[in-house]
Amino acid sequence: MERRHLGTDGPEVSALGLGAMAMSGAYGKSDRDESIATVHAALDAGVTLIDTGDFYGTGHNEMLLAEALRGRKREDYRLSVKFGMLMKPGNGFGKPDGRPEAVRNFLAHSLTRLGTDHIDVYRPARLDPEVPIEETVGAVKEMIDAGYVRHLGLSEVDAATVRRAHAVHPVADLQIEYSLLSRAVEDEVLPVLRELGIGLTAYGVLSRGLLSGHWTAGHSAGPGDSRVHGPRYGAGNVEHNLALVEALREVAEAKGCTVAQLAIAWVAAQGDDIVPLVGPRSRERLAEALPALALELTPDDLARIEKAVPRGSARGERYPAAFMGSVGVGS
After folding, report:
1. Is 203 one of the catalytic residues?
2. Does the pTM exceed 0.90?
């Protein structure tokens, strides 16, 4: 598999990363055995970057990954972990906590749950508005100096915050949503990342399934599926957005690939400093995603994709209004 670097100072990883969030109930019920088999299949295919969050399933995701990774050589994969989201019973979210003492506490629990002695990229999931980013990053730097963390990452912050964090310690990469339907990162954030030599790991490349080619307007999200609250899945919006998908399907069919493969390939084609994350819950969906890296998009292909899904054409924000205030850029 092709490899890419997470920024100038970050690790070398596979050009496609595995996001594990959906394996812990974010989009409804998941199957433990199939999740573990999917992690194994990803590793066997050459995927080395595995992304999680200590709050995914209130710790379930880290414990699941520990089970899936047991017996694998630690040098064969890189763990990217988000921290800082306080939780309530029932998977309710509290506010972000970026206090230095909280950083050390979160890390101690993650190391134990994951069954490892270090984390490769450690990043606050969201900016804590009550704690200067310099203090949060300073605590991660202490853990890097102590050997418990290898690299600093960021998640969902604006360009100014990237600069402030990078001044304290080199940032390997910023994790942020980037897809054909979510392109606000292109305005200010991506240019700053490139100026500073920081990579980008792009999540939501299939817009939580909208761009998968498998979602229909009559589809029911099902119990526990967070997409039921997503504005882009709301009545009126989802029909509009799926019309964009159908236009993209025409381009994909002409290219001889699936809609999902084309959407992933488009993100990967935006620069060698970008690593798309995919979040399959099954080996079947993983097998569909992997060939996307082999797709070569010509200038004509890119123009046809842009015509099918112009920037800003999606209807609805990428998160409910209550969550949009916690992200660094819009939709």
Report:
1. no
2. yes
